[in-house]
From TrEMBL:
Transmembrane segments annotated in the record for this chain: 38-63, 75-96
Protein family: Belongs to the peptidase S10 family.
EC number, UniProt record: 3.4.16.-
Name of this protein: Carboxypeptidase
Protein location: Secreted
Length: 542
């Protein structure tokens, strides 16, 4: 058993205590004294007894913590039991942590047996839990991981990140986009998504930063001080520890994917990994590339693209179009001026009651109004099973106590009400890069495979924004603009540059896998394989 201490003196003390406990256990066994079973679950937090049980002359005391475990069985006479317990409490009070976390053991503790409302069997394992990314403040990020449906040992690992900032990757990415478990209209039961990306890869969903979804911090001020920089740092810390918990995936081909404000998260985390690999080769992550959809790239070019899309689709007036370009084109997407917000409200009234995230599909009646103005603060919202109210279903399901228990959510840190997006996080975002184009240039030079895709009915971060931002990279064109096909039908259009591939997805909104799940699965297959999307094979009519 490993004993982690804060000083040489406490190290000596801790080893002596462990030795004493072991001798005590052996001595009491020889004397056949009254038993006490003591389980110590320790990691980095204060340890307190959670269960006391008395069975005749047997006293059972349990100490629980979700991050690790150690165990002693002490055989003792009741007359001096509490003296020994006092010694243990003193040991813990000194800040000495007994750590025996076995990565594979913790991995198994994170395994999910079955979800409430799941009336079918699955042929893949899945896991969820916390990983502490900052010991001092107690920041811990929540994840949900799915093995590939077949041949998991040889498939790549894909991380999915939603944006916001402040929105849950589990709420969106897992429960309504690329995950295997989607939620029915009544919040229960779940059903199996036939277009889940774990058909082609092992898929990891991360709620980041702390304060989003089930991720938490023991330091309340953390929730008021999130930003791009710390999110990338914490996400890197998460991955390094996650690979320790799942060592079978070390060295596996690794890709990062996401959408919306994930247009910041994905390249920023990729940059952090590439730089960390150069500094610490023994902790390197085998990052091969990344892919982002309807992504925030560059505040200026993205704004110009949004306003052009709204005007060219006939959603706003000529005058409002001119004012938007005048007052907002050079503003931040996250921290905009009062004058910009005012003209956005004018544009919102002109657009009317439609879903800005997918302009040709019906809106959810309870959440459809005033969305253009909100998109400045919440960047992040038709397929065979399109439902405009999917967020409501997630809220109903993930607030069920039995669901949280199945997902290993610690009730001490669970939010009083789980939400798809945190307006507290979003409204207090501290740093947001005005552009990530320089990061793209750095990562192109690093040799990463980079694809950007865009649903063509999104008015929040539309295809026009993506095209303007990619054009600003000034990359040589290596493949002409052409349509790509799925089942003989146009799936979208593709343009290949030196270092970046741009793909549009026909008939999809802001969340491409929600609106066009089959096309999205074709997209990830081609990306992972490094193949261009299929051109049409023309056949004769005769």
């Amino acid at each position: 058993m490993n004993v982690i201490t804060k000083s040489q003196a406490s190290t000596k003390y801790s080893f002596s205590l462990v030795t004493r406990l072991r001798k005590l256990q052996q001595k009491s066994l020889e004397k056949q004294s009254f038993p006490i079973s003591l389980l110590l679950f320790t990691h980095t937090h204060l340890i307190i007894p959670s269960i006391f049980a008395f069975r005749g002359t047997t006293i059972i005391i349990f100490f629980r913590h979700p991050q690790g475990e150690a165990s002693f069985i002490i055989m003792a006479r009741p007359t001096w039991v509490f003296l020994q317990l006092f010694t243990i409490f003193a040991f813990l009070h000194l800040g000495i942590a007994v750590s025996t976390e076995n990565p594979l053991r913790q991995q198994e503790l994170d395994r999910i047996a079955e979800l409430p409302g799941q009336n079918f069997e699955v042929k893949f394992g899945h896991y969820s839990g916390y990983i502490t990314v900052n010991e001092e403040s107690g920041r811990a990020l929540f994840y949900w991981f799915f093995e590939a449906t077949e041949d998991s040992a040889s498939k790549p690992l894909v991380l999915w990140l939603n944006g916001g900032p402040g929105c849950s990757s589990i709420a969106y990415g897992e429960a309504e986009e690329i995950g295997p478990f989607h939620i029915n209209a009544d919040g229960k039961p779940v059903y199996l998504n036939p277009y889940s990306w774990n058909e082609v890869a092992n898929v990891l969903f991360l709620d980041s930063p702390a304060g989003v979804g089930f991720s938490y911090s023991n330091t309340s001020s953390d929730l008021m001080n999130n930003g791009d920089k710390r999110t990338a740092e914490d996400s890197l810390a998460f991955l390094l520890k996650w690979f320790e918990r799942f060592p079978q995936f070390k060295g596996r081909d690794f890709y990062i994917t996401g959408e919306s404000y994930g247009g910041h998260y994905v390249p920023q985390l990729s940059q952090a990994i590439v730089r960390n690999n150069l500094l610490f080769k023994e902790k390197s992550i085998n990052l091969k590339g990344y892919m982002v959809g309807n992504a925030l790239f560059d505040d200026h070019h993205d704004h110009v693209g949004v306003f052009e899309f709204l005007w060219s689709t006939g959603l706003i007036s000529d005058q409002t179009y001119k004012q938007l370009n005048l007052l907002c084109a050079n503003q931040s997407f996250v921290h905009s001026s009062a004058s910009c917000d005012e003209i956005l409200e004018v544009a919102d009234k002109e657009i009317g009651n439609i879903d800005h995230y997918s302009i040709f599909t019906p809106p959810c009646s309870e959440a459809s109004s005033n969305r253009l103005r909100k998109r400045m603060h919440m960047i992040g919202r038709v397929g065979e099973r399109y439902d405009p109210c999917t967020e409501k279903h997630s809220v109903a399901y993930f607030n069920l106590p039995e669901v949280q228990q199945a997902l290993h959510v610690d009730p001490k840190f669970a939010p009083s009400k789980w939400e798809t997006c945190s307006y507290l996080i979003n409204g207090n975002w501290k740093d947001s890069a005005g552009s990530v184009l320089d990061i793209y240039r750095e990562l192109i030079q690093a040799g990463l495979r980079i694809w950007v895709f865009s649903g063509d009915t999104d008015a929040v971060l539309p295809i026009t924004s993506t095209r303007y931002s990619v054009d600003a990279l000034k990359l040589p064109v290596i493949g002409s603009w052409r349509p790509w096909y799925d089942g003989g039908q146009v799936g979208g259009w593709i343009q290949e540059y030196e270092g970046v591939t741009l793909v549009s997805v026909r008939g999809a909104g802001h969340e491409v896998p929600l609106h066009q799940p089959k096309l999205a699965l074709q997209l990830i297959k081609s990306f992972l394989a490094g193949n261009s999307l299929s051109p049409l094979q023309l056949h004769s009519d005769t």
